[in-house]
Amino acid sequence: MIRRAGRALVLLAVLAGALNADEIPPGERLSGYDMMGAEAQAMQRDDFANPAMLAVKEGEALWHAVPGEGRPSCAGCHGDAAASMKGVAARYPARDVPSGRLFDLPGRIQACQNGRQGIAPQPRESTGLLALEAYLALQSRGMPLASPRARGLDDAVQRGEGLYRQRFGQLDLSCAQCHSQNWGRSLAGTRIPQAHPTGYPLFRMEWQAVGSLQRRFRNCMTGIRAEPFPPGAPEWIDLEIYLKERAAGMRVDAPAVRP
Asked: Which residues span the domain enclosing 76?
């Protein structure tokens, strides 16, 4: 009985290894920046040329803006973002201790707007919310993404991996089939990236605008003819957490530029 149980455990370990055999070793991981052409890389490196920096300037103004009489600004509670927000984007999504709820960074901003400032939260993909997210993300530029597993988010990592490997849509494709098994190949004239979310929110040339990671998720889902989850859905947050685990240790380069 003990021998049989031992063999079963070994078999499970082998099967688990086979399922994850397509994962990219740390030494071979490339960010979207690494996979762009020289011209796009130069645009990202130069803050005067990077269009996403316009959103950062707007976010900085919103950080200091008083939303109404008797209501605090973001700076009124948190002070200088360069100090108080340093590393925050590298640690999100995170679990809210009192409620146990998982928040991504824009979700946390919305929660503060509602609960602390007493104003209606700005909608996802709105100019204001993206601007605040870009401003906060800039404060973590160059810092390594923190491992969600190391922060006790194993449950979300597991759910996110399930979504990453699940086939969706009429094309019956999973995230893993493109971004783990076929990265570097060409799709519609663009190289398939490894899906390391180091640069969001970012200016995407295809959009000619700044957009969120969830917007990119929705683009992929509609591209494979699947019905996307609603904005802010727990599934998106779980998927982001898994991608952050895959990218743990890679440097934040937000707000980035991508093709």
From this structure: 29-259
Tell me, yes or no, whether 22 lies in a domain.
no
Instruction: Count the helices and strands in the chain (H runs, E runs).
Output: 11, 7
Q: Is the preceding omega at residue 98 within 30 degrees of 0, hence cis? A: no
Catalytic residue among 74, 77, 112, 220: 220
What whole-number distance in Å separates Cα of residue 13 and Cα of residue 131?
45
What's the one-letter identity of residue 110? Q
In this predicted model, what pLDDT tens digit does every residue of 79-93 receive, in sequence order? 999 999 999 999 999
Residue 77 annotated in active site: no
The pLDDT tens digits for 108-156 are 999 999 999 999 999 999 999 999 999 999 999 999 999 999 999 999 9
Question: What pLDDT score does 20 carry?
Answer: 64
Q: Are 56 and 111 in contact (CB under 8 A)?
A: no
Q: Domain count of the chain?
A: 1
Do you know the residue count of the chain?
259
Give the separation between CA 64 and CA 76, rounded to whole angstroms. Answer: 8
Q: Is residue 89 part of a domain?
A: yes
Query: Which is more confidently placed, 19 or 217?
Result: 217
Tokens of 46: 């130069």
Whether 61 is in a domain gets the answer: yes
> Count of CB atoms within 10 A of residue 84's CB?
14
